[in-house]
Design goal:
By secondary structure, the protein is an alpha+beta fold. Helices cover 47% and strands 21% of the residues. The longest helix is centred in the C-terminal third of the chain and has 21 residues.
């Protein structure tokens, strides 16, 4: 029986997304066999989808392989909903990196994860898995907890109900403990992450809020637990967050 309607459309969309998401940082061109292995789709299906995506410019052919196309990059640039925020935040983030020599992040919440809008890596900072456009479980990051502390109850509940997976030995996985931390962060305006996203890594983060006091993003500084005092860098992070919050409120 031929599949039509919403279910059929959803299946095609899921397969297209699987092909595009199969590309990882550092990848160049991938062959049909590798794409089939990564997606779990049949080679014939991958070959057909890759052909259609190449015709639209979302993929580009390289011999018998394909790579992500410039058209996809163009769409991605348009999809950055907070481009103005990134541009406004960049000078502040650069100052934070220069002053601390550690890695600075700007992130937003997307579902149960944070998405990094900007990452400025510091020369003295650890090699973190975060990257611009990358995702990480919100409950295991300073920026995630900062955003959740100023988010509606249903947003926090959605994160908790989805489960709190352990990312490192110190990741918070107990809902009650997470809620208590969020209450304290809401009062102080600062979120601390102590080796919850990775062993040896600490972070200080602060939320950017709109005119209604709801978080729209967060900024953070991350560094080695043995080198960076989170309490010392916290005031600078908070100051930047307050300045950017005024920008958000005005726009």
């Amino acid at each position: 029986m031929r599949t039509t309607g919403r279910n059929g459309d959803g299946l095609v969309t899921a397969r297209v997304a699987a092909v595009l998401e199969a590309f990882r940082p550092g990848d160049d061109a991938l062959g049909v066999s590798e794409l089939a292995r990564r997606t779990g789709l049949a080679k014939t299906t991958v070959h057909r989808l890759a052909g259609h995506l190449a015709e639209t410019g979302l993929l580009e052919r390289d011999g018998t392989s394909v790579r992500l196309g410039l058209r996809l990059f163009e769409i991605g640039q348009l999809a950055v909903r907070r481009r103005g925020l990134v541009e406004a935040a960049r000078p502040y983030l650069a100052d934070l990196r220069e002053a601390t020599r550690n890695t600075v992040h700007l992130a937003v919440l997307e579902g149960t994860e944070v998405v990094y809008l900007d990452v400025l890596r510091g020369p003295d900072a650890p090699d973190l898995p975060s990257r611009t456009g990358g995702r990480f479980p919100a409950h295991a990051t300073g920026v995630g907890k900062a955003i959740l502390s100023c988010s509606p109850d249903d947003v926090v509940a959605r994160v908790i109900d989805a489960g709190l997976p352990r990312v490192s030995p110190r990741t918070i996985t107990a809902p009650g403990l997470l809620r208590r931390q969020l209450a304290r962060i809401r009062e102080d305006g600062i979120a601390f992450e102590r080796e919850e996203s990775g062993v040896g890594v600490v972070c200080a983060a602060s939320p950017l809020v709109d005119a209604n006091g709801l978080a729209v993003a967060a900024v953070s500084i991350s560094g080695w637990a043995t080198r960076m005092r989170t309490e010392r860098v916290a005031p600078a992070v908070r100051t930047v967050a307050l300045a950017l919050s005024r920008t958000v409120a005005e726009t």
